[in-house]
Amino acid sequence: MPMVSVNEYFDLFFNVVIGVGLVFELPILVFFLTLLRVVSPKFLIDNSRYAILAIVIIAAIVTPTPDVFNLVLFATPMVLLFYVGILASYLLVLQREGRRFPWMKVLVAAALVLAALAGFAYLAVTRYGYRLTIEWPFLVR
Fold first, then answer.
1. Kindly report the CA angle at 42 between 41 and 44, in degrees rounded to 5?
2. Distance (Å, whole) CA 140 – CA 133
3. Which value, to the nearest 10 degrees, does the dihedral of the CA atoms of residues 110, 107, 32, 92 take?
4. Which of 36, 38, 57, 62 could form an SS bridge with 19, CB 3.0 to 4.6 Å?
5. CA angle 125, 73, 122 (to 5 degrees)
6. Per-residue model confidence (pLDDT) at position 3
7. Terminus-to-terminus CA distance in the chain, angstroms?
């Protein structure tokens, strides 16, 4: 087994920490680009496939190992943060145009999603013999 120097571990740690730190600035970057009227939420949604491709490429560069699990582990929060940035820019545009956020539609959609998840959990417990636990995974046989 080859010896690994402390500098190599430090370089790996430094690259990962800097990469993750820059990733968490993504919503702020999207917000400021919207504030400066460089992009709009519609533009971001229309071109989100290219943004996700760029995010996966960045995650592949930042990921310390070549396996897919670590790539997905890095890319998933980046994609979620991209959409949080789109939401923030949408709220900025609504405020700029003097409109209000459609809270009722969002609450109805969230209630429908929660009801569907509760229905799946109910079916898993009653029909398929799963039981709920306090620890992960919350549904076990």
1. 65
2. 7
3. 160
4. 62
5. 10
6. 66
7. 41
Spatial separation of the C-alpha atoms in residues 8 and 130, rounded to whole Å:
46
CA 99, CA 82: separation in Å to the nearest integer? 23
How do strand 139-140 and strand 131-132 relate by DSSP bridges?
antiparallel
Length of the chain: 141
As a three-state string, the secondary structure of 73-138 is HHHHHHHHHHHHHHHHHHHHHHHHHCCCCCHHHHHHHHHHHHHHHHHHHHHHHHCCCCEECCCCCC
Q: Supply 9's token pair.
A: 């571990």
* DSSP classification of residue 24: T
Cβ–Cβ under 8 Å, residues 85 and 39: no
60-66-71 Cα angle (round to 5) = 45
Q: What is the DSSP letter of 56?
A: H
Instruction: Provide the token pair at 72.
Output: 């997905």
